[in-house]
Specification:
Shape: elongated
Largest sheet: 3 strands, antiparallel
Mean pLDDT: 77
Low-confidence stretches: none
Number of strands: 5
Strand content: 25-35%
Length: 139
């Protein structure tokens, strides 16, 4: 292409980078997920065409930060934990969860040895929570 330019930069938390979401503690938490590339014009009304031809990202992080876990309630006593590994190799670990009330009382907990699925595949586990007397659902 005519007028091709290559731009190389170190990733966050370097100058000019921002991040959002996560644990709201001001720290970057893995795994890396690219959500947006933004070009800001600093108040200028200039127009230009930008074509992204290729995006190469070289990243590394410890195996402890290469797995995404999301959860979803299926009904009042059961929830699913879905694992997705970003590692090229299966990872062994322990999936631990603790469910507490707003007052800090433990409603349920579990620790399970797991092996993560291959990259770009997910593994979903169903968990049941037995609620104490007087509770009919978890919020």
């Amino acid at each position: 292409m005519e007028n091709d330019e290559v731009y190389v930069t170190d990733g966050p938390p370097g100058s000019g980078w921002s991040w959002s979401g996560g644990e709201n503690d001001g720290k970057i938490h893995g795994p890396l997920r690219l959500a947006e590339i933004r070009v800001e014009n600093n108040g200028q009304n200039d127009c230009f065409d930008l074509t992204l031809v290729k995006l190469d990202i070289q990243a590394s992080c410890s195996p402890q930060k290469q797995c995404i876990v999301t959860t979803e309630w299926t009904d009042k006593n059961n929830f699913c934990a879905t694992l997705q590994s970003m590692s090229k190799d299966p990872l062994q670990g322990i999936l631990s969860w603790t469910l507490k009330t707003w007052d800090g009382d433990i409603v349920g907990e579990n620790h399970q040895n797991i092996i993560t699925p291959s990259p770009r595949r997910t593994q979903t586990n169903l968990y049941s929570v037995t609620l104490s007397a007087g509770r009919n659902k978890v919020y």
